[in-house]
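Before a colleague's protein record goes any further, I have to sign it off. Thanks in advance; the entry in question is below:
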Amino acid sequence: MEVLSLGIVAADVLAKPITKMPKRGRLELIDRVELHTGGCANNTAIGLARLGISTGVMGKVGKDGFGDFILQKLKAEGVNTSGMKRDEKVNTSFTFVMIAPDGERSFFHYIGTNARLSLNDIDLDVVKKVKILHIAGSNLMPGFDGKPTARLLKKAKDFSVTTSLDTAWNSTIDWFKTIKPSLPFIDIFLPSIEEAKMITGKKEPEDIADFLLFHGVKTVGLKMGTKGSYIATNHKRHFIPPFKVKTVDATGAGDAFVAGFLTGVVKGWDVERCGRLGNAVGACCVQAIGCTQGIKSFDETVRLMKK
């Protein structure tokens, strides 16, 4: 296994188009609704598998229909699920995704089993055998965020495993306090720019990168949506423009970027080329409804990059 994607998994119900919320006790009609797997760990793993990278997911689902659905989908995509745990007391995490006509999304989220993931659920024998450990969805795993995450990342570094981390939005936390213990042990940090602003208190990509690099991160990759991405190390800086495509649904685009970036890392590419591949996978993702439906094979994605 080359990449282990550890973190939040969920069932997603996507509805489109949502132009307004119904008044209390009333009903509004929508044109389309679909059930998909979601969550950062799930989305990133499926993206990696589509790109030809040997991948597994480690996380927790309930013993319910949504949990069955997630595990079946992962296996169908060729993702290793041996590290998945099932909780008998709490239901699987669920997100209702409301998609506006322009593709922008709003969410209702039930944290469910993701809140119950802890260090006790982590199989270190699996972790020590992978090339990259990717923590997917920090800030939405209260039993694992903060010091437990840092302890696992340090252990992975002791195993000579490359570490990667992506954040998720949570308006109820102290962003920097939560992530600070982990920063010295993160080789590749791939937050959205809005999340990075919350962590650092900075506004500009250059200042955000300086802050994170100072605190120990080796490579910073900021996902900036329609503005592309910004990649920084202590030696190089790159603004990478987006690919111009028609956006149908932006759900999962950030996780698709991560899958593309980590694919480049596995292949030994330089950070600028990894960022370009990340942008390309994200561009494929937004052309279809759902977190992973639009992601293509590695060869198809490279053809988009060449165009």
